[in-house]
Write a structure and sequence with these properties.
- This protein is globular.
- Helix content is 52%, strand content 11%.
- 35% of the residues are buried.
- By secondary structure, the protein is of the alpha/beta class.
- Strands 2-3-1-4-5 form a 5-stranded parallel beta sheet, sandwiched between helices.
- Helix 1 packs across helix 2.
- The longest helix is centred in the N-terminal third of the chain and has 18 residues.
């Protein structure tokens, strides 16, 4: 990767946030600024948000090996499954010092269980360019690998139909809930998260996670990798529609990409 110097002042101006906030963001997440074991803990319950089609299965296997205890949230019953595994993890934390991680497709609504009970949140996630993620997610849901593929294909017979129904900022909303500005998104990340990665630099992201969190066993795997469905070119109209619904997703992804190019 090309080495560049992260300039908080220039990045703050480019992303239209305060220099103080951008400096705090870089100090918390940039591999070039975070020291080894900066986020290491002897006892913790880390919440790892699996945004669909961001190498979650591969990362999950890595985390399963690295943490003392791994809790998986069921994709087909997220609220109840999250409450069950979270209660178990929190109880185990009161019994012994262990490093635990909860991973799944849960998001900001489930994470409020920790805030509501005045417990600290230590979170991590991996993002992907919104256009590539959206297309990959559509292809996966249409494939036999997804249990509900028939229902999905009936509802969305084409990529165009899926994109027309795409919610705004899928990744930011799952990780942070509603935001009223990009600055608000960075404030939440600095307050509640300790790791941000990108699928485009997955090796570097996992290396940074392991080094910054003291996870010596962290290894990279490649599982459940989507297969491209031919060489069909995606129209510029579809790309524009995805980007129009992913303004803050794209901005955050662009910013995190800078961290892994330094």
């Amino acid at each position: 990767m090309t080495s560049i110097i992260l300039d908080a002042k220039k990045l703050a101006a480019e992303f239209r946030v305060s220099e103080t906030l951008m400096s705090a963001f870089l100090d918390k997440f940039a591999p070039s600024r975070v020291v080894s074991d900066q986020h290491k803990a002897s006892s913790e319950v880390m919440l790892f948000i699996h945004i669909p089609k961001t190498a979650g299965v591969s990362v999950g296997r890595s985390l399963r090996e690295a943490f003392d205890r791994f809790h998986s949230v069921a994709w087909d019953n997220i609220p109840q499954s999250f409450r069950t595994v979270a209660r178990s993890a929190v109880y185990q934390q009161t019994c012994r010092d262990e490093r635990q991680v909860i991973m799944g497709h849960f998001g900001w609504p489930e994470m409020q269980m920790f805030r509501n009970h005045e417990m600290p949140m230590k979170c991590g996630t991996i993002l992907r360019h919104p256009v590539a993620r959206t297309i990959s997610n559509y292809n996966y849901n249409c494939s036999s690998a997804h249990p509900a593929n028939e229902q999905f294909r009936k509802r969305y017979p084409s990529l165009e139909a899926y994109v027309d129904d795409l919610p705004s900022d899928v990744q930011v909303t799952q990780a942070l809930g509603f935001i009223n500005s990009f600055e608000n998104a960075l404030e939440k990340l600095v307050r509640y998260y300790s790791f941000l990665g990108v699928t485009e630099h997955l090796s570097a992201s996992l290396a940074h996670l392991g080094r910054s969190h003291g996870l010596q066993k962290l290894r990279e795997y490649r599982e459940n990798v989507g297969v491209k469905r031919g060489d069909k070119k995606i129209s510029s109209e579809i790309v524009k529609k995805i980007e129009a619904r992913s303004h803050n997703d794209k901005r955050l992804h662009d910013l995190i990409m800078r961290l892994y190019q330094s």
